[in-house]
Design brief:
4 domains, Growth Hormone, Chain: A, mainly alpha, 34 helices
Length: 740
């Protein structure tokens, strides 16, 4: 008990000392424009920061080169070295086993010998590994080399982002740190592209190039000033910081802040692994580790390592597919880096997860059609579309965001050990996925992708239910939000006072928050059957009904088979699909602007009307074509109908049902009711996409007439049943439903 009391006192003392520099920093920002440089940035020369970052991300590029090596080389290595499927699976997956060892040891090594020497060590392992692969004549040297490059990867995965974060000024930290993920993707992509040209041995030699650049650059750039400060090397610390900020920069304020932070860090209790399972840390650990499970077990490493073989086995040219994959990955990762501080972490992962589910279902459908001899011409297009949707979705969110959230979610005194645990889980998942992929594919190719789709669907639910939004919050605000949910009253009030100001009256707001939490705790925990009680029935009918309207109106059938719809109606598929894609983005943005102006209900009604019109126009095109009437007009009707349909869906029916669902359920049933509505939505998506081709073979114009009728019924449902929620609090919405 005495030890526990000392730890608590140490934490309280440390937290009090953390507040002082942060409050001073807030005052500095609040007295002027946030975008203006802070004191100390005048006269800064950014060249050394940019050069240092460039040198460090050569390690990220080396990481990507290791990860992308096995995909374009699988068939050549198996043929040249005569490897069995099991031996090649071990070769592909032992990389991640080495990375796990690297991840476990990287923190201790980086703290002991420094960030620069750790990157040198990692480069040495990668170089030795590539040479071992190059000279290999059998399985032993191949596996040793792959393990060594994996160990280097694991070390790079920790030390590069940590080093960049420690050397970058705060106004550049976010942008420079995201370059780590971008260069990993660039390394993977370059391996994919040049792997279609070079032999597998020559490709191994190219992996040494970024390591050599890194080793040379490390002799030029300074060591992390924060690591030097932690060691107590004051002279070297100040010299390093001055080199990074420029000869004429005023570094006194930043140096003082770093020193205060290091002093505070030293006073915090050293956390051990078992400490992570204490109640106060459990939610943070669940979020951090859970996101790593979601990232890896959704299939990314199996798909990434064996992209070429996936394309080949589905009947699509492997070199074309792999190059397209590589280019798309870099572009979308760059887009994700731009969006992460604008759209937010949580929406980006949810959107990403949705795309992962869609990509898996498309790829699985391709294998299903091929194995059953159905629509053989469509199977390759489905495969390449599915893989590209998958990698695009992963790159925009699930690739980078879990690492960002992990860096934000842990309290400072457990960040090291909790981060090591999360990283270990990540690499373990990567190893499991890459090792089992070939075995799963030999069991059932479409079953493998269906399994990955299910895991990614569960990941979406986990993110919605468990992961908080951290965009625009300080680390202290994030911890305060978690502590408030855990009932930590003292920390909750201290956090709220810091946010509102020292002299602000927080009593009313604190009471409202506490009443809300108390009410939540008193409400009964709802079960699935409780949703059908009379008091909840209208809310559930609205939420689930909107999901039925959204999905059974034909969106996924039309979305999945847009190209074939254009082709079968006589319109150029490429022109129609590009127009479709551009229109969808523009109209969705318009809908986001209008939703809080026009209201939810009018937007869905207008959207539903457009869906009916789009279906009727497209159906008319097929009717005219099948009956030999007005053949010149049929293609124009088809493209007009599809574009009207997707524009109408994007402006309302696409987003508004999710908004209303988030507002309509009472808080005590929100979890189980939201899960039911989401399940119905995905079931509807599957039904629509699965039945579309069968319906089209029955009657093309009849299919669109059926969708028009369903969308007309959806309009009636919305007018009669769905309330307007615009401008109302959640409590007012519930009161309106209960009074009716």
């Amino acid at each position: 008990m005495a030890d526990d009391q000392e730890i608590q006192n140490g934490e309280n003392l440390a937290q009090e000392e953390i507040r002082v520099p942060l409050i001073s920093q807030e005052k500095r920002f609040n007295n002027g424009d946030e975008d203006q440089p802070t004191k100390g940035s005048n006269g800064e020369d950014r060249f050394m920061v940019y050069l240092t970052t460039f040198v460090a991300i050569c390690g990220s590029f080396a990481f990507g080169s290791c990860a992308g090596y096995s995909s374009p080389t699988q068939f050549a290595i198996r043929e040249d070295v005569n490897l069995s499927l099991v031996e090649y699976s071990l070769f592909g997956s032992i990389l991640t086993f080495g990375a796990m060892i690297g991840a476990i040891t990287s923190g201790k090594i980086a703290d002991y010998i420094g960030r620069k020497r750790t990157m040198m060590l990692s480069s040495g392992f990668c170089t030795a590994g590539w040479l071992s692969i190059y000279f290999a004549q059998g399985v032993i040297l191949l596996d040793i080399g792959r393990f060594a490059t994996g160990y280097g990867m694991g070390v790079f995965s920790y030390v590069v982002p940590v080093f960049i974060a420690e050397i970058a000024p705060k106004e550049l930290r976010g942008a420079l740190t995201t370059l780590n993920q971008l260069m990993i993707c660039a390394g993977v992509s370059v391996s994919f592209i040049i792997g279609t040209i070079l032999t597998w041995r020559a490709l191994a030699l190219t992996g040494i190039i970024p390591c050599a650049v890194l080793l040379f650059g490390l002799f030029i750039i300074p060591e992390s000033p924060r690591w030097l400060a932690k060691l107590g090397n004051q002279k070297e610390f100040e010299a390093s910081l001055r080199r990074l900020r420029g000869k004429n920069a005023d570094i006194s304020e930043e140096a003082a802040e770093i020193q205060d932070y290091i002093d505070t860090l030293e006073k915090l209790p050293k956390a051990k692994l078992l400490d992570l399972f204490q109640k106060r840390y459990l939610r943070s650990v669940t979020i951090g580790v859970g996101l790593m499970v979601c990232q890896q077990f959704g299939g990314i490493n199996g798909i990434c390592f064996y992209t070429s073989s996936i394309f080949e086995s589905s009947g699509f040219p492997a070199d074309v597919g792999t190059i397209t994959y590589a280019i798309l990955q870099v572009i979308i990762t760059a887009l994700g880096a731009i969006l992460i501080d604008r759209a937010g972490r949580k929406p980006l992962i949810v959107i990403s997860g949705t795309g992962l589910v869609l990509g898996c279902l498309l790829t699985g459908s391709s294998y299903f059609l091929k194995e059953h001899g159905l629509a053989l011409d469509a199977a390759p297009a489905l495969a390449v579309t599915g893989i590209l949707v998958y990698i695009g979705a992963f790159s925009v969110g699930m690739g980078a965001v879990p690492w960002v959230v992990m860096s934000e979610i842990f309290p400072i005194n457990i960040k090291g050990v909790a981060g090591s645990l999360a990283t270990l889980v990540n690499w373990f998942g990567a190893w499991v996925c890459s090792f089992t992929f070939n075995f799963l594919m030999s069991w059932s190719s479409y079953g493998t992708f269906t399994l990955y789709a299910a895991i990614n669907a569960l990941a979406i639910i986990f993110v919605i239910k468990v992961v908080p939004e951290t965009k625009g919050r300080t680390l202290e605000q994030i911890q305060a939000a978690i502590n408030a949910k855990l009932g930590n009253q003292k920390e909750f009030e201290a956090s709220l006072r810091r946010l509102r100001g020292k002299n602000a009256d927080i009593s009313e707001e604190a009471a409202e928050i506490q009443d809300y939490i108390d009410t939540l705790e008193k409400l009964p925990k709802a079960k699935l059957l409780d949703l059908f009680q009379k008091r909840y029935l209208r809310s559930v009918t609205i939420g689930v009904g909107l999901m039925v309207c959204q999905q059974f109106g034909g969106i996924n059938g039309i979305c999945f088979y847009t190209s074939s719809i254009f082709e079968s109606s006589g319109f150029p598929a490429d022109v129609g699909t590009i127009t479709y894609a551009i229109l969808q983005v523009i109209i969705t943005a318009l809908g986001a602007i209008l939703i809080d102006r026009a209201g939810r209900k009018p937007l869905i009604v207008i959207s539903g009307t457009g869906l009916v019109l789009g279906c009727l126009l497209t159906g008319s095109s097929y009717f005219l074509k099948e009956h030999g009437l007005a053949l010149d007009a049929a293609p124009a009707l088809a493209v007009t109908g599809i574009l009207v349909y997707i524009g109408a869906f994007s402006v309302g029916m696409g987003a508004v049902p999710w908004v209303v669902m988030s507002e309509i359920f009472p808080i005590n049933i929100k979890g189980v009711a939201g899960s039911l509505a989401t399940l119905v939505n995905w079931f509807g998506a599957w039904v629509c996409s699965f039945t579309f081709n069968f319906l089209m073979s029955w009657s093309s114009y009849g299919t669109f007439t059926l969708y028009a009728a369903i969308n007309a019924l959806a309009i009636i449902f919305v007018i009669k049943v769905v309330p307007e929620t615009k401008g109302r609090t959640l409590e007012q919405i519930q009161a309106a439903i209960n009074s009716s």
